[in-house]
Amino acid sequence: MLPFIRSDLAQLTAYTPHPSSTDGKPIESVIDRLDTNESPYDLPRELKQKLAWIYQETIETNRYPDAGHAVLKAAIAEYINESANLTQGAIAPAQISVGNGSDELIRSLLIATCLGGEGSILVANPTFSMYGILAHTLGIPVVTVGRNSEFEIDWVAAQAAIETTDNPPIRVVFIVHPNSPTGNTLTNAELEWIRSLPEEILVVIDEAYFEFSQTSVVGELLQKPNWVVLRTFSKAFRLAALRVGYAIASPEITAVLEKVRLPYNLPSFSQAAAILALQQRDLLLQSISLVCAERTKLIQALSQYSALKVNYSAANFVYVQSNHPTQANKFLATLAQQIRSRGTTLRLLSGGLRITVGSPEENARTLARLESAVKSCESLS
Ligand SMILES: *Cc1c(COP(=O)(O)O)cnc(C)c1O
């Protein structure tokens, strides 16, 4: 370890979205990437041309980007208000903060709440790994609780953890709605628990998959001074390459997020792309119904395997577990490796396998690979 590097970083491993091959096959052998929940659909050609024109004619590359993101924030606020069930009032642009992906916003939230020994965070596993990873890079302790067989948060354990953790106390609870990797939306019991959390605790509700689930807590946000909703353009809006995410919160929380972020966090091109995507949302979001129809087909096809336990999903991925009585994890690891060697990458987690819903062609190829891979895993009995 380099002598000038913080000692606690030695134990950390870098986040690898596409882990390098474990079966000796080079990465080029992978044809279908169903491991990072991207949209299978690139931007339509006419939108790419429009964006190229915007870049050519309106972006001066010698100038810094708009550091206030004014046009983008106004467009995001309009989109939220159109899609949210706000009984009174509206989300204002001053309640939006934009990040270089929602990952940046997660880090800003951690910096603003827990840095310097002031707080710990709480997550319910399995969930999005980035909260824990980013917390650890900042030296912030992570308290974990589990979920039941329906993947509901063990909120009794979570509540106990909040009441007993000090030095430093839990300052932030991170929740994904619908959860990744498991695909389930928040139940009424979970929502009641979240509503009961005291105002000293920041509740971050990550709605990265909102456009697929069409369920949101934004309608309650105006009454909740300690809630933040995160969204992203990386999934349904098909802009993962350009890294745009946003937070919706009170003006006070938003002001702090603006304070801790880097001034030019979002390139002009990314801002232009997100604005265009919002203007063209009717066209872009047409892909949602295709993805959801493919999700239904995928779940049906996977459910035919007695070796697999397939879960319902409100997002653009399906979480599959093993029914193997003794070697569930080994079965899934072998299965993932076999499918990968045939050309599809999936996300292997401890306890399950997450399959992103791809295009009809990607899904058909993947199901064929799964069929032959399951056969070769049958010896594991
Ligand atoms: C994909 C995903 C994000 C998106 O991250 P970006 O940095 O905006 O690409 C955020 N949260 C969860 C739970 C996700 O699955």
TrEMBL record:
One protein family per Pfam: Aminotran_1_2
Catalytic activity: L-histidinol phosphate + 2-oxoglutarate = 3-(imidazol-4-yl)-2-oxopropyl phosphate + L-glutamate
Signal peptide boundaries: none
SUPFAM superfamilies named in the record: PLP-dependent transferases
Superkingdom: Bacteria
Any one biological process term the GO annotation gives: L-histidine biosynthetic process
Keywords: Amino-acid biosynthesis, Aminotransferase, Histidine biosynthesis, Pyridoxal phosphate, Transferase
EC number(s) recorded for this UniProt protein: 2.6.1.9
Cofactor(s) of this protein: pyridoxal 5'-phosphate
Functional pathway: Amino-acid biosynthesis; L-histidine biosynthesis; L-histidine from 5-phospho-alpha-D-ribose 1-diphosphate: step 7/9
GO molecular function: histidinol-phosphate transaminase activity; pyridoxal phosphate binding
Residue ranges of domain Aminotransferase class I/classII large in the record: 34-369
Modified residues (N6-(pyridoxal phosphate)lysine): K235
Stated family: Belongs to the class-II pyridoxal-phosphate-dependent aminotransferase family. Histidinol-phosphate aminotransferase subfamily.
Subunit structure: Homodimer.
Protein name in the entry: Histidinol-phosphate aminotransferase
Native organism: Chroogloeocystis siderophila 5.2 s.c.1
